[in-house]
Amino acid sequence: MDLLNCIKEAGIVGCGGAGFPTHVKYAGGPVEYLIVNGAECEPLLRTDRYIMKHLGDRVISAVEAVGEMLGAKECRIALKKTYTEEIKALEKVLKDRSSRVKLAKMDSFYPAGDEQTMVYEVTGRVVPPAGIPLDVGCVVSNVATMLGISDAMEGKAFTKKYLTVTGEVKKPTVLHVPVGTSFETCIEMAGGTLKSRYFVVSGGPMMGTRMTMEEAKTAVVTKTTSGILILPEDSSIARKTQISLQHMLNRARSACIQCSYCTQMCPRHLIGHPLQPHKIMRKLSMSGDMKKILNDKDVRNAAICCECGICEEYACPMGLQPKRVNQVLKGALREAGIRYTREETVYTADRNREGRKIPAGRVAARVGVMPWYDLKIDTCAEGTPDRVEIPVSMHIGAPSEPVVKTGDRVTEGQLIARIPEGAMGANIHASISGKVVAVEKRIIIERTGG
Length: 450
Known about the structure:
It holds the Pfam family RnfC_N. There is one protein chain. By secondary structure, the chain is α/β, with parallel strands linked by helices. The protein folds into four domains: 3-153, NADH-ubiquinone oxidoreductase 51kDa subunit (Rossmann fold, 3-Layer(aba) Sandwich), CATH 3.40.50; 159-235 and 368-385, Ubiquitin-like (UB roll), CATH 3.10.20; 245-356, no CATH class; 386-450, CATH 2.40.50. 34% of the residues lie in helices and 19% in strands. It has 19 helices and 19 strands. The strands form five sheets. The protein has a six-stranded mixed beta sheet with strand order 9-8-10-6-7-12, with helices on both faces. It has a four-stranded parallel beta sheet with strand order 3-2-1-5, with helices on both faces. Strand 18 (434-439) and strand 19 form a beta hairpin. Helix 4 crosses helix 7 (143-153) and helix 11 crosses helix 14 (277-287). It is globular and about 65 Å long. The two termini are 33 Å apart.
């Protein structure tokens, strides 16, 4: 079986973002650059750093194989200059293998791991608005995705996930657990929480999914889970999440002072995209009705927001939420059937871009997670839960179709849900051996003694 089919059969999806099926991403044809994202975009996460430091040989073997498959002229692992131990470990592997893979050492800024920002940092090329890296001859994949491909090359399906558990827990750590493991189990593996009441972020503090501790009790690890962050229930992140949509819109209409800092510091604006959040906020305040302004050119540019959060967590002096406004506008544009159309022009980065890159440490301080920013996490715990709940939809594309039924016995790595015929999706495999006890939106498997 060729490598592309190995990746498809193993159910590999992008581990650093929304879970785009990797076999689809790689089917676009030859590329000039294969860029492997090791920048660990969000503050506090240590997953990719652990993988690069301890599993670098497997990562680089996959990079070499994928680079050859794609016909890439250049293969680069992009990471931050401050990752000195990870750089040392990777450079040793590269030397021992006489590998053609090179390291691209970036400044420590946020969001260095944003796909389109990274393409510009490594190649100097601007991915056009609403475009993909392939538009400029590049493919970007996460370090953990490459680790999954390394497993696929050995005939192993994607059934386990590395993730960071940190914040208000007793033993912040990296975990390696079966897909479908409950957040509760992961938190217990990190020694439990330090507070009786807490707030949870799945992912990083800037772009992660935010949930109450009650909501987190039903959450499970998916193929895209990169971290679980435990915060105080009265943290600034928790308080902002509780602001109602209507109150947020009222504040946007009444308090925006049109300083334009949100635009000046917007990472996508700085690489030349026409996104200008301050204009969106102005037109929202003038109209008072979101639906009436959907046909406005500036408002339609909300569709190209990457939702990094710089605008509201760092730039806005009034504490407003341009990112959340853009999120709401994206939904309204989709509902109205309005698709983004870019102008045919040459996009160039802002000449002030270098001076406006935001240091990662400042972002951590501003968002209120500085107490855990400098934690050294270099341990990994293996999880062996007795029960997993595996969602049939944890990737971009159609939900996978179950091929098992309640009562079936399955073994770890066995196919339990497949890509629907003619659709984009990803295969899903049992992450533990046991008995299938439910098949709905989640396939639930319980480990059995036999």
